[in-house]
UniProtKB/TrEMBL annotation:
Domain Reverse transcriptase per the UniProt entry, residue ranges: 78-331
Pfam family, one: RVT_1
Extent of the signal sequence: none
InterPro entries: DNA/RNA_pol_sf (IPR043502), Group_II_RT_mat (IPR030931), GrpII_Intron_Splice-Mob/Def (IPR051083), HNH_nuc (IPR003615), RT_dom (IPR000477)
Superkingdom classification of source: Bacteria
Protein name from the UniProt record: Reverse transcriptase domain-containing protein
Amino acid sequence: MSALRYWDYYNMTGTFTELYERAKNKGKFSKLNDIVTSRENILLAYRTIKSNKGSRTAGTDGKTIEDIKVETDEAIVNLIRQKLLNYRPKKVRRVFIPKPNGKQRPLGIPCILDRIVQQCFKQVLEPIAEARFYKHSYGFRPMRATHHAIARVQHLINFNRLHYIVDIDIKGFFDNVNHTRLIKQLWNMGIRDRKVLRIISKMLKAEIEGEGRPTKGTPQGGILSPLLSNIVLNDLDQWVAGQWADFTTTHKYDRDDNKYMALKKSHLKEGYIVRYADDFKILCRDWKTAQKWYHAVRSYLQERLKLDISPEKSQILNLRKRCSEFLGFTIRAAKKGHKRVTHTGINNKKKQQIKKEAKKRIRKIRQSPTAQNALLFNSYVLALHNYFNRATHVSLEFSRLARELRVFFYNRLKQVGKYEHPSNPPPVYHKFYSSNYKTFKIANVYLFPLANVKMNIAMNINQSITPFTEEGRKLIIERMKPDIQWEVAKLMKSRLPDRSLEYMDNRLSRYSMKMGKCEITGLFLHAENVHCHHYLPTHLKGNDQFKNLRILHRDVHKLIHASAKHTIMELRKRLNLTDKMIMTINQYRKRCNLELID
């Protein structure tokens, strides 16, 4: 995980760990501003923003990360510190992006310096908040994903036999967060630095271009907004859990099962919350209990968090009779023998969206049957399969989608491609798909078949996995399986117009064969950090063949080609290389006719 390496490089790992441990012990934080404005924290924030693709999106001042890159480290630190002495955020740029239902979602894009400031605050607030967050909240949190939320719901249905679900939809959540209440929640979480709270308040009230200063809401698009939103709804999580799952009893039980057996004899409402951002479910055992939860949650949201629910989208469902929808999946408790098990699929809205997008991409290939467009289609299919392959009925769902689109695909592509069973497909195709399905070959690239997908079992997250403890970091490094399929899908989107198809294909194959690991450091590489090096450089008559390519971390690649001494020193310090790694790098440099490094 590259973020952990950056923490080490800027000496912030110990600081974040200490904040997390103090927060776990209900500590209070009155001097956070010193950490926020520390040189190391500012430079870490700058590097994090710089590595984000969104850094190339301009705010209302028209500036991007390219305008900041020219500054020295010291200049950036002084710039941020000076800005925070009397912080006044610039206007937020308003952008609208289309939603699947045809409506538009408003995003707020802060100026680049304000984004760096927000990242400085996020880095310091996140370990404190993470220590206080409820364990079954999964949205916008480190090492957690939608699949963990789906796995938790499946577990509650399969093992706890909870077949009633309370679906609550918060009306315009991000636009209606109460600012005063949020600041109080931060205070109750132990954040007692008044200067920090004052600056966060100013961030929330930053003027939006063409709309004025907001009196409520956390604008989507801001760096800090997802964390603040989770802080708002953490009160709901803890309240629901405190009613049953985490209810404190006077008698101490050895096992939770024994505690719950005793609680069932009381008048408490049995219910378990699973939340992903503002989308949450409460699973219950019977209709009467579900009704109680529905009204209790509605009252809590209105009275405590000043939020309203959408009555037309909020409901109680019997999963034995009807499907619930969660994060693009359908969920139902289907009969299997003498018990009920979870059946999950793809919801209708998402299916229509998939069909529409697939047709759009096929039309693009017909108009321009290039290898790049074929690879972009493959990236889309691989990402779809990777997201939905935790559905128990994913194979059936995608087979139906493929059948519905078959005629459209054939009629649009028969004149620009060859329809066949893949013969001698490239390694990446062979890794993810079988040759049993006919598909089109466009510009020597086989299109990935929509129908050919296998189910992966959705697994509950190990609650010990967190970047904020030593044990958690070890688990991340040792046990977390890198998602090669997802990263390959992202790599396929790369636009490298000067590279040959052979290079593009062998780059993907090499990455896949090496399980996404840097061939010098051995660390797993996310797509944004992947560089592909020619072992024998092209200017020395090297080619794009598989055996001449090497998958490297981008900073390692820069070090191999670096000539300036200060650049070499900075990269060596950042990478924390061993003597053996330096020897390998020198072998690469020698092949490039470059001077060896000490």
